[in-house]
Write a structure and sequence with these properties.
Strand order of the largest sheet: 2-1-5-4-3
Number of domains: 2
Largest sheet: 5 strands, antiparallel
Order of helices and strands: HEEHHHEEEHHHHHHHHH
Number of strands: 5
Distance between the termini: 31 Å
Shape: elongated
Structural class: alpha+beta
Oligomer: single chain
Helix content: 55-70%
Strand content: 5-15%
Length: about 425
């Protein structure tokens, strides 16, 4: 617990609380506060009579961008957990920063908060300052949310959800280090998986761009053919076969890597969900242990609340494991799809070799054709290299999933 000195308001205007302290609040579906713990009450500066029955926006600080809440409520409304850095305002007008993990639960929502200490936190504050200025200039919440998604992509993430899942892993690791505790193996594995999936996503984007660029080669071959042979000659036939085969592969690639709700998106969402649930479960477990010494709160049935939080801790473990099992299924499908594309590339290689043979046969007038085949050679080498990288990354994700599930099973046992 925080000392009296820590509880005292600091000159900076920030309400201090200890890294070891966790607090939560629970709301109904409308966002009205129905429960919380003493740390929440103390840090917010309100009395319980002021908190219970009040809308949670009572502690909202104007320095938290509206786009953040738009993303949070969109995720929660779809039944998904989410996390965010939030600057709150105490009754005194002072502020306090939290990293909040939020869950949709029966009868409303739960938010568990910890003190942010990861190296990412200062960068988040800069991002929020920039976005708040844009909102004051007229940026609406929807556009603000899109801007945050763009920021996540600029940070190297495929989505804001993956960005926040990574942030949660970093915050949990930083908290463990500050409290001189051993790193949690499952959190580390999930964080590594999230990073591997993000690298897979980036590599797939490069693969799609390479393959889209490849589509211009058959047209170049036809142009060369029109100067070198009668209509329907061997080069024309090779270029047409290459075009048909490459387009078929392109459709497959865009199906599992480039489309909205693609396989890689599903794996990424499931891993992020598991990370959110695991993190919330860890924090709930720590809070639940402190409930034995907690004083009852007027207006809250403490025994019912304690039983509810214990149940949520178990639910997080169960639902996190289920999310990982879904990710395993999607990852296996992704691996099969990648292997299938690689097999189809062998067919393209055969057509490319036929083009090289024709290039050699027409050595007296093959300058344009030779350059085109050289382009094919370079693209094929690049594409096969990217496919091998994706297969390797997917294998790493699968191995990490297996480690997580085994450690999770051992924990449950």
């Amino acid at each position: 617990m925080a000392s009296q000195a820590e509880i005292a308001r600091s000159p900076s205007g920030e309400v201090p609380f200890a890294i070891s302290e966790l607090f939560y609040s629970r709301t109904d579906p409308r966002g009205v506060i129905v429960a919380g713990n003493e740390i929440f009450r103390r840090v917010s500066g309100y009395d319980w009579a002021e908190l219970l029955g009040a809308p949670h926006r009572l502690v909202r600080h104007p320095d938290t961008p509206r786009g953040v809440f738009r993303i949070l409520w969109e995720a929660l409304g779809k039944g998904n957990p989410m996390a965010a850095y939030v600057k709150n305002r105490a009754k005194s007008g002072q502020y306090y920063w939290v990293f909040a993990v939020m869950l949709p639960i029966a009868g409303g929502f739960l938010s568990v908060r910890l003190k942010p200490t990861a190296p990412l936190f200062p960068r988040i504050r800069e991002i929020y300052d920039d976005l708040i200025a844009r909102e004051r200039d007229g940026l609406d919440p929807e556009a603000s949310a899109r801007w945050l998604h763009d920021v996540a992509q600029a940070q190297g993430f495929s989505s804001y959800t993956s960005f926040m899942a990574s942030a949660l892993g970093q915050e949990l690791a930083a908290r463990d280090a500050r409290l001189a505790r051993a790193a949690d193996a499952r959190t580390r594995v999930l964080t590594e998986m999230n990073e591997a999936l993000e690298e897979t996503t980036r590599e797939q984007g490069r693969l799609l761009r390479s393959f889209d660029a490849l589509q211009s080669i058959p047209n170049n071959m036809r142009i060369v053919a029109s100067r070198m042979e009668p209509t329907g000659g061997p080069i024309s036939a090779i270029s047409e076969n290459y075009k048909i085969s490459s387009q078929a592969i392109s459709v497959r690639l865009h199906g599992f890597a480039g489309a909205r709700d693609s396989l890689i998106d599903r794996v990424s969402r499931d891993v992020a969900k598991a990370l959110f649930l695991l993190g919330c479960g860890r924090l709930l477990g720590e809070m639940n242990a402190s409930f034995l010494a907690a004083a009852p709160v007027p207006g809250i049935d403490w025994e019912v609340e304690r039983a509810l939080l214990l149940g949520l801790e178990r639910d997080c473990a169960r639902d996190g494991r289920e999310a990982m099992l879904h990710a395993v299924e999607h990852s296996a499908t992704l691996n099969r799809a990648s292997a299938e594309v690689r097999r189809h590339m062998l067919g393209l290689d055969t057509i490319r070799v036929l083009g090289r043979v024709e290039c050699g046969r027409m050595r007296d007038a093959n300058g344009g054709l030779a350059a085109t085949i050289d382009q094919l050679d370079a693209f094929h080498a690049e594409i096969k290299g990217r496919l091998e990288t994706i297969m390797r990354l997917s294998e790493n994700v699968g191995l990490a999933m297996d480690r997580y599930l085994r450690s999770s099973a051992a924990t449950v046992a």
